[in-house]
Design brief:
The structure is a homodimer.
Chain A lengths: L2 H45 L7 H15 L7 H9 L9 H14 L7 H18 L4 H20 L2 H10 L2 E2 L1 E3 L3 H17 L17 H32 L8 H16 L9 H7 L6 H16 L7 H15 L7 H17 L2 H12 L4 H14 L10 E2 L19
Parallel strand pairs in A: 1-3
Helix pairs in contact in A: 1-4, 1-5, 1-6, 1-8, 2-4, 2-10, 3-6, 4-5, 5-6, 6-7, 6-8, 7-8, 7-15, 9-12, 9-13, 9-14, 9-16, 10-12, 11-13, 12-13, 13-14, 14-15, 14-16, 15-16
Chain lengths: ~425, ~425
């Protein structure tokens, strides 16, 4: 053992223990505030349903705020991914109040959205403030942004291992680089610790029972995985398409007004709030009884509409909803236990839409236990394959093509295909 | 959704369901035969200790067999990794009887070795026989070899997820590519299924209890991780050094004769068989009481000697032994539970020595449950960092440097540094 390399690693470790702890403190605290507020606005909406009629008004204010102050940050998650690939400028701190306020208004007035986008953007933007403070060089800033994503994801879902790997996996499709391995794991663990230390808990999902593996159960799992991947792809395509359509409205603040009218009218026509907000109660329901296919389809449409027109939040919790209810509905035709299919859909659709199969496998293990690990992993891996070169993050670069036939697309951003 | 890409993915899926099932059948059956034989020779040795005196003779026959018939395959794991990077020729089927026989003789006569090398080499070599049979193109053969490694690893340890990721992670240090994702997972799952279907079970390790995360427990985990990484590095360095020293003996079959004399004499002097063979009972013991540091040190020396002089087997189970007993010994000074430290060492030292942190994290979750997942992951990640650009596989290429200071080493093989 030569002394020099070990010293370099010791310095690297010490440096990132300090920086990642700071990231964890910032992102974890932001996630705690966000989760508590989100609980509060969700509860307030469910007890004051008239608020949903005001969704177009809320949309106008969100659109106006971004129009006036948010030109630089309206690309959200994609802004952070772009900065990882090609650094241009510090991520403005104003991203934090804009995305936090926008998400809370979206949920208070009945949009269908998630929370990972918000947590990841807050994590990335807060982390990036350390760049100036600590005078970090560009190569360190890259690791810092990745660790910020990991911290935001880990703390908002209470899944530190999935969060750590999500940050490493999300910016490049088809490959993972380990230079940010230690920073991401440290930031994810400390952010999750900080959120929990603020007394904020997470949803408990059922632990999946072991199901003996047979060639037939594996075959069913593969079929389910294909469907999860195709639905993930449809979701991504629909959000992009809706977003393009709304782009025809020249004055941006009017886009969520129209979208808000459509979403609020749908809620009124459906006569239920089942498909708006995070939808956590329905996700839990999906593990216990086989739901109707209408559940996943309606959630998919309303979420694509909400996010495509300019409301804020994230795609991930709705994707959990879509996947879990799709899996649950499949239990009517695929002879696997309903809880298992719901769990597989939960992580599988998300793996396909975000192109993060290893993070989603880890998330499955963290949330549902290891007993059904093989089924969860196969759902993620197959869904990842079948979503093709599409996804919810247009700034994600293709590090390695999913199929040799599309090898020429390597190096492109998903949004540029 | 365009129709063409989905068709391409469907064909890819069908193709690899067939190929991976064949790989799984071959590798899983080979692992089953191997594990049953290994149990038998271990039991026979422990009831006929006089066999250990014949270790030098066994060494001569192993050395002679490889000298006469095994020139092409003596590089073992590294041959398979080299073929993944730069295909030259089919892996000769004779590798299978040579490594299987060599490993069984090593264990029967009291060498200190493992089994993953044997299983991985059998998996890779058997898979490669399909190359000719199915007339696979070079780009498919690459995926086939990776899937063969995954299948061998998964079936010999009963950990399909860790096996799948191990195959993906082991040939490139510091990065993971996903082109073999589906083939690896399918081959790992089916090989594990086949081994179990033959009625062959695996060691059950204790499920680790949850330990509340605090800044102090994380600090202890990081310190332990550093030690695991440094020990992994020492082990790899020692095996290479011993191997170089024995290389001075011109006639190769005499190398394991001398090594066998030294190992057998050590066993006689120590008066115990505690440090030879796989050592599974001691690994289990390490979870229950804090062992002496002598355990890890003696196992490290005897394994490095056994493998460095030319006996066969693998490094991984001895690394589990070294890590678990080192963790267990640390419980005397580091205030974490002994079972937790043993589990962290089990996966951590191996993660450092093989440079496979994600596979080892998954292995920890599969063997010890998710409750202590954060500690297991941190042990793997930190040990990975601190083993530096060293490791037990000299044909492993550096895909991404662990530290920017060593960026120039990217693209080199570990053995060429």
């Amino acid at each position: 053992m030569r002394a020099v390399p070990t010293t370099a690693y010791v310095l690297f470790l010490l440096r990132w223990v300090v920086i990642s702890t700071l990231i964890g403190g910032l992102a974890g605290t932001a996630s705690a505030i966000f989760l508590v507020s989100l609980d509060w606005v969700t509860h307030w909406r469910e007890t004051h349903l008239v608020l949903i009629a005001l969704l177009p008004v809320a949309g106008f204010f969100i659109g106006l705020a971004y129009h006036l102050f948010g030109n630089q940050v309206v690309r959200g998650n994609n802004l952070i991914l772009d900065e990882i690939h090609a650094p241009r400028q510090l991520i403005p701190l104003r991203l934090v109040p804009l995305v936090l306020g926008g998400t809370l208004l979206t949920h208070l007035f009945g949009g269908s959205a998630g929370r990972e986008g918000t947590a990841v953007q807050m994590g990335g933007a807060l982390a990036d403030q350390l760049t100036r403070l600590l005078k970090l060089r560009p190569r360190d800033r890259r690791l810092l942004l990745i660790a910020g994503i990991s911290a935001g994801f880990a703390s908002v879902f209470g899944t530190p291992l999935a969060g750590a790997v999500f940050g490493l996996e999300v910016f490049l499709l088809g490959s993972m680089r380990y230079d940010a391995l230690l920073p991401s794991f440290l930031a994810a663990v400390s952010a999750d610790f900080v959120t929990r230390a603020w007394g904020v808990g997470h949803t408990h999902y059922p632990q999946l029972a072991s199901l003996p593996i047979t060639p037939l159960t594996i075959l069913y799992a593969l079929i389910a995985g294909v469907l999860f991947g195709l639905v993930a792809r449809s979701f991504a395509a629909l959000v992009h398409r809706i977003s393009q359509l709304f782009g025809r409205i020249a004055y941006a603040p009017l886009r969520p007004v129209l979208g808000g009218v459509l979403v609020a009218a749908s809620v009124w026509a459906l006569g239920t709030t089942r498909y708006i907000g995070l939808g956590v109660p329905v996700i839990v329901e999906a593990f216990h009884l086989s739901l109707s296919p209408a559940d996943f389809a309606l959630k998919l449409l309303l979420t694509a509409l909400t996010l495509g027109c300019g409301f804020k939040g994230g795609e991930v919790t709705p994707l959990f909803f879509i996947g879990a209810t799709l899996g649950s509905a499949l239990a009517g035709v695929v002879p696997l236990p309903v809880a298992l299919l719901a769990g597989m859909g939960f992580v599988g659709v998300f793996a396909g839409a975000a192109n993060t199969p290893i993070a989603c496998t880890l998330m499955g293990l963290e949330l549902f236990g290891v007993q059904a690990g093989v089924y969860l992993a196969l759902a993620c891996v197959v869904a990842y394959l079948f979503s093709g070169h599409t996804g919810i993050y247009s700034a994600q670069q293709i590090g390695q093509a999913k199929h040799l036939r599309f090898g020429r697309q390597q190096g492109s951003r998903l949004g540029d295909l």
